[in-house]
Amino acid sequence: MSSDTNKPEGSNAEPNKPICLIILGMAGAGKTSFTRRLSSKVINGSRPYLVNLDPACREVPYPANIDIRDTVDYKEVMKQYGLGPNGGIVTALNLFSTKFGQVVDLIEKAGKKHKYCVIDTPGQIEVFTWSASGTIVTETLASSCPTVVVYVMDTVRSVSPVTFMSNMLYACSILYKTRLPFIVVMNKIDVVNNSYAVEWMRDFEAFQEALNADGGGETEGGNTYIGNLTQSMALALDSFYSDLKCCGVSAHTGEGIDEFFKLVDESAEEYEREYKADWLKMRAEKLAEEKRKKEDELKKTDSVETVIDKKSLIDEVPIGRELSDMYLKHPGNESSSDDEGTENEPEIDDKPEDVAMFQEFLKKHIKPNDTQK
Ligand SMILES: Nc1nc2c(ncn2[C@@H]2O[C@H](COP(=O)(O)OP(=O)(O)OP(=O)(O)O)[C@@H](O)[C@H]2O)c(=O)[nH]1
């Protein structure tokens, strides 16, 4: 492989765009440890570009190039909206996703130096996979750079056939939803070898035997509904398994990491071959739609004189707090109760997507001025 380009061997990937890896997995599967392991891998003279999307983690154990915590203060979000930890994470990610176009600009630029970009996601998988912000992040990335979904599975906790099946069903649902190349990483093989899982995926009868031995298929009264369902699922997942790329790794020892990168390069080629055209088409349609909406909005605001509904705006944030408390805090400014610093001139940000977002915001809070009379 040449050292002056980040283009994967044999792939048509654009040379200046990094291959983005979205790291997903159940809480505790080892996403952060795996990201940390990938961060130390030098490829083509550089390490992967690293993005942390978990607003709630206390420490990021790798040198993140972009860290959501530098942009959104998760604790402040919880306070201001009166949310619990999960609601706080979802809302923080929602706020961040409104700026994700700018993040992707940075990732694209990083492609000049970095062949890979690794994106670590929040601990609770559904926060990312079942939220609007997760979809925005995935779609924005996939329509700009070759993108691969990496599902980290805890090999130690999946030795029970029923747990294994649940994990695979989750993986399958993500594959179905994201429409991107997909790799299952069986982590923690320093503790339990992943050969049992590979055998279950390749040989339905072996899985069936394990299920019976585990008692998952039977009770005193005979076959259970869950047991029958698991068997049917295993058959249904057969075609999912047949094309699935998977490898065993240990985030602790580094075993299996080279094999993983081979699968990543294959997946990037798959993206170019099978997915890219659709994503580009989708992006073009979206841009056209946004442009049309913006023109409609401009026409409307030109023709109707409007005023801001101040009451509903003020109600958004409790008295004594500012919306800006949540956004873009200086790392040294830990809490909203800190002393006020020097006021800086606000940066004027007139990117088209921000203008469109502002128009949306105005639409929600504006009413015709005849209501004021
Ligand atoms: N033995 C072993 N333990 C691991 C491995 N990878 C992660 N762990 C351990 O698994 C636990 C969870 O790891 P994390 O990397 O925090 O997992 P995560 O998926 O990022 O966790 P959340 O973000 O909190 O959901 C930690 O105690 C790690 O030390 C591995 O390859 N081998």
Automatic annotation (TrEMBL):
UniProt xrefs under InterPro entries: Gpn, Gpn1/Npa3/XAB1, P-loop_NTPase
Enzyme superclass (EC): hydrolase
EC numbers, comma separated: 3.6.5.-
Biased composition (Acidic residues): 336-352
Keyword Kinase: no
Keyword presence, Repressor: no
GO molecular function, one term: GTPase activity
Coiled-coil blocks: 277-304
Cellular localisation: Cytoplasm; Nucleus
Residue numbers spanned by region Disordered: 324-355
CDD domains: GPN1 (cd17870)
Keywords from the UniProt entry: Coiled coil, Cytoplasm, GTP-binding, Hydrolase, Nucleotide-binding, Phosphoprotein
Coarse class of the protein's main subcellular location: cytoplasm
A GO CC term attached to the entry: cytoplasm
Listed transmembrane segments: none
Assembly and interaction partners: Binds to RNA polymerase II.
Protein task: Small GTPase required for proper nuclear import of RNA polymerase II (RNAPII). May act at an RNAP assembly step prior to nuclear import.
PANTHER family, per database record: GPN-LOOP GTPASE 1, XPA-BINDING PROTEIN 1-RELATED
Family: Belongs to the GPN-loop GTPase family.
Full protein name: GPN-loop GTPase
